[in-house]
TrEMBL record:
PROSITE patterns: HDOD
Top-level division of the source organism's lineage: Bacteria
Protein name: HD-like signal output (HDOD) domain, no enzymatic activity
Residues in HDOD domain copies: 19-214
Gene3D superfamilies (alphabetical): 3.30.450.40, Hypothetical protein af1432
Length: 479
């Protein structure tokens, strides 16, 4: 029986089958860096073996970021003269990494990890500039390749990657245990193994092992990776403050100066990844603007939201029982929203009811990161012949709709600007909320935070909850 797990299996697969070109380029460039007698011609020869790589390297070398004076660079030799050997080698490795890993349809995990890798590389290089007079590009490369094993897995593992996503999305799943179950090895061990097999150099190996952490290059690499990882939880997180204090102490600067440098590095990382040709990565590096920071944190949390059948079934049962109990409407609506949000995995859900003498719709309850706050003052007048809209249409015609699919395209004109201002463009579910024959309001749900497409299973659950809430409201009204 062929082995499909374990360190040796994955090392051989990535090196010989999935990423042989990347392994070869990385190995060749690392050998050139280790040779003090390396010439411009030797580096040019390595690149010229691959016409596509040469073209991409020259494109990056001519970018505003690397060549702000816009001096024309048409050959690798010219690039080395103008930008320096270390810069061109760094560009080549970065370009090879992006091209090799993103050649297939990438998992979201790969895009997020690759963005973190570039962010870490820029942070590490800029930290190194405080600690050492040279070799900052060596630090950049080492930080960029720090998570190489995990990057390779999400790029090439196919069904194994899909299986890991499924395992890790289960409620209460231990992410590291799931990795070991699927791979037979941890991501850290896989990255260490590739570092040695691909000759990534002493800096990468020492950074993984921790070393004594007295070497300035290792300190810069590890701190750059930590800052990149921690930035996903916010720049003001207590753990980030600890990293900033460490940076300040190493560099001999104040904590405020360390923070300013780290934020500048994050902004620089956005420009770097854009230079390498994939705009998706730029949007995954934590922003430094307060409003953008809040928005990105919402998006990341939303990406983690997965349907939970246990919660779904529990809320469906509770909805049936609440109809026969003496409870308030708000308790019923809380159960409804919990079932759709945590149970069905819908990122934003709200109930808008007729208010002010049934002259407008106002939000009664909403769930989803920042959704309730956003809709705090929202008011949508009931439509009139001059300004018809979907909320009134749904309540009048008593239809449960999945907007954004071909079957409902004829109703898109009813999604008006006052609706889009608060709800934004994209797929959504909408249904009438009734108490017997009396109109109460509408139920709305979407997955706008992450931009994921809605699923048929979610629509089935949505319709079931609509039936239950309308039945419950009818019984409450009768009492």
């Amino acid at each position: 029986m062929t082995q499909t797990t374990g360190l040796d299996y994955w090392l051989k697969r990535f090196t010989d089958s999935d990423l042989p070109a990347l392994a070869s380029v990385v190995n060749d460039l690392q050998q050139l860096a280790a040779d003090d007698d390396t010439s411009v011609k030797q580096l040019a020869d390595v690149l010229l073996h691959d016409a596509a790589l040469t073209s991409h390297v020259l494109k990056v070398a001519n970018s505003i970021y690397y060549n702000p004076m816009q001096e024309s660079i048409r050959t690798i030799s010219r690039a080395i003269v103008l930008l320096g050997f270390a810069n061109v080698r760094s560009i080549c490795l970065s370009t090879s990494l992006v091209d090799a890993l993103l050649q297939q349809r990438p998992h979201q995990q790969l895009l997020e990890l690759l963005a973190r890798a570039f962010h870490a590389a820029v942070q590490a290089r800029n930290i190194a500039s405080y600690l050492m007079a040279r070799d900052q590009e060596e630090v950049f490369i080492a930080a960029l390749l720090y998570h190489l094993g995990e990057l390779a897995f999400w790029s090439c593992a196919g069904e194994a990657a899909d299986r890991l996503v499924t395992l890790q999305s289960a409620p209460g799943a231990d992410a590291d245990a799931c990795v070991r179950q699927v791979l037979g090895v941890s991501f850290a061990q896989l990255s260490q193994g590739l570092a040695k097999a691909w000759n990534l150099g002493e800096n990468v190996v020492l950074a993984h092992a921790g070393g004594t952490r007295k070497e300035p290059q290792v300190q810069a690499i590890v701190l750059g990776v930590q800052i990149s990882d921690q930035s996903l939880t916010g720049w003001d997180h207590p753990a980030m403050e600890k990293h900033l204090q460490e940076f300040a102490q190493l560099a001999g600067i104040t904590a405020q100066e360390a923070l300013e440098q780290v934020l500048q590095s994050a902004e620089e990382a956005v420009r770097v990844v854009a230079t390498f040709g994939d705009e998706r990565l730029a949007g995954l590096i934590p922003a430094t603007d307060p409003e953008q920071i809040a928005r990105q944190q919402q998006q990341r949390k939303a990406c983690l939201l997965q349907p939970d059948l246990t919660v779904l079934q529990s809320c469906l049962q509770d909805m049936g029982m609440l109809a026969n109990k003496q409870v308030g409407v708000d308790v019923l609506l809380q159960t409804l929203l919990r079932g759709l949000h945590q149970g069905a995995g819908l990122e934003r859900v709200m109930v808008a009811v007729l208010a002010e003498g049934q002259s407008c719709f106002r939000v009664r309850q909403a769930v989803g990161e920042g959704f309730a706050h956003k809709l705090l003052d929202w008011r949508l007048p009931v439509d009139n012949p001059a300004q018809r809209h979907l909320f009134s249409y749904v309540l009048r015609d008593r239809e449960v709709l999945w907007m954004g699919v071909p079957a409902t395209s004829s109703l898109l004109d009813l999604v008006t600007q006052p609706m889009l201002q608060y709800l934004e463009k994209g797929m959504f579910f909408i249904a009438p909320v009734m108490a017997g024959s009396r109109p109460v309001g509408v139920l709305y749900a979407d997955s706008r935070l992450s931009g994921r497409a809605l699923l048929n299973e979610q629509f089935v659950a949505f319709k079931r909850f609509v039936q239950l809430v309308n039945r419950a409201l009818d019984k409450m009204t009768a009492r």
